[in-house]
Amino acid sequence: MSSVLIVADEEPVLDSYEFMLKSAAGFVLAGKARSGYEALRMIHETEPDLVFLDINIPGLDGLAVIADVHKKFPGMVFVLSTAYERFDLAKRAIPLGVFAYLVKPVSKKTFFSTLDDAREALAKRPVAEGEGREDPGHFFFKKIIWQEMSGETWEEWRERLDLPSDRGIVFLLELEENTEQWCGKIAEQISWKYHCRFDVILNRGLFLVSGNINRETLEARLNAILKRSFPAGLACFCGVGELCRGPELHRSCNEALRKLEEERQGTDTRQWERLRIIQLRRKIGAAPPPEEVKKLFTVFWQELFRTCGFALAKAKMIPVFMFLMDDCTGCYLDNAEALPLFAAAEEIMAIPDMPAWENWAGQAFEKILLQAALRRSNTFPVPLAKAIEYIHAHYAEGIQLGAAADAAQVSPAYLSRLFSEHCKTSFIDYVTELRIENAEKLLRESKMNIKEVAFASGYQDPNYFSKIFRKFTGLSPMAYAGEAKRGKGDL
């Protein structure tokens, strides 16, 4: 399995290459970089086998990146791309040993043809001095285990790695952070019962459990270890391959990779649904223009029905309407006097088709918006309304409770109590949610980088901004932006 790094400053190019790469046998994505300096960092971190590199990228251009690393990584294969055929660029590329030079737009046929040529070149590449000798385990997990082996090759590696059995199972772990640390702990606990070897390849833990093992038993033990070992909120994806003989361990690797990708895709979908519901609840509470909230609601249910099918999507919309009704009436709180605006489950499950759903959903959502507006007008005291108006106008600045209290002509202590009583939140949390909502919009709709988004949302420290953003959304700013650009609509 050869790893590929894609470097370009255009998201459509990154997404297109990534999409095509997923269907190319023998290759796996090492990462994506959007500037020359980011490419340098990722090349040193991931040591990819193949790099697709646009020449015109911010910071160092593509040729400068290759000039910086080609001596340190002589076996790395570089494919350059640019929008124009230019002799001067090709002339600079020749002494750097560039493998191919592509003129954009790159067709699917050209991309796969270049991959085929690169595959042959990588297969013929001489093993670097000491590779497979100084650290045989790392070389085995990075290269050998992904390929079909002859019986002789397998026996040689089995002896070098001191593997007790001719059979084994591969499993992969992808973690949000501290990959090597956590993988070491997992391997230690797996080794209490099984013989286990592991390495970290492309920021994923790759484990080989040697023995004639029942896969279901191993999966159950692994799930129990993951459940008790990882702190709440740490994202972890896992894929367990099939039991294979040593020469065919590549089948177990590919099966584990496929299952890991399926689990991550399913989690991405659930995360997307969660984020959209949170946004709807925030929007209704913050009183934005009605058309803006209606659009958010419509895009949400349209995507849900497109991906889930009619029956399942209807079932998923039941708790959504119950959440929204509770937010604007408090009907599901203890000792609540208000009743639900309508019987969501009974009415939704009786809807026979899409036209009927669209008509019902529009009317039901109008009722919720009207009730939310009535509740705000009846319950917000004038000082609180003035403070909220001030906050919405100045949240991108370093506003404090005292400044909002001055705008509302009340004391800070009294304004703090108003937020607690009427908004069911604190002043700080209200401002933070408003800032994070603005950051989400900028990440979806603008071309700002993370630092610029942080400043525009009222945060002078991008690291602190990233920490707060993750706390409120469950994703890092970079991951959130990636989800939006991969086509999950107006996340």
Q: What's the Cα radius of gyration?
A: 27 Å
CATH superfamily of the largest domain: Homeodomain-like
Helix content: 55-70%
Structural domains: how many:
3
Distance N terminus to C terminus?
Answer: 33 Å
Number of strand segments? 10
Structural class: alpha/beta
Mean pLDDT: 81
**CATH secondary-structure class of the largest domain:** Mainly Alpha
Summarize the biggest pleated sheet.
5 strands, parallel
Per CATH, the architecture of the largest domain is Orthogonal Bundle
Unreliable parts: 128-134, 487-491
Percent of residues in β-strands: 5-15%
Main-sheet strand order equals 2-1-3-4-5
CATH topology of the largest domain: Arc Repressor Mutant, subunit A
The number of helices is 21
Morphology call: globular
Overview of the molecule:
The protein is of the alpha/beta class and 491 residues long. The chain folds into three domains: 2-124, Response regulator (Rossmann fold, 3-Layer(aba) Sandwich), CATH 3.40.50.2300; 136-265, 2-Layer Sandwich (Alpha-Beta Plaits), CATH 3.30.70; 270-485, Homeodomain-like (Arc Repressor Mutant, subunit A, Orthogonal Bundle), CATH 1.10.10.60. It is 59% helix and 12% strand. It is built from 21 helices and ten strands. The two termini are 33 Å apart. 28% of the residues are buried.
Brief write-up:
The protein is an alpha/beta fold and 491 residues long. It has helices at 11-22, 36-46, 62-69, 87-93, 108-124, 136-142, 151-160, 179-190, 215-229, 249-286, 290-308, 310-329, 344-349, 354-379, 382-394, 401-408, 412-423, 427-445, 450-456, 462-473, 477-485, and strands spanning 2-7, 27-33, 50-54, 77-82, 100-103, 167-175, 195-201, 204-210, 236-240, 244-245.
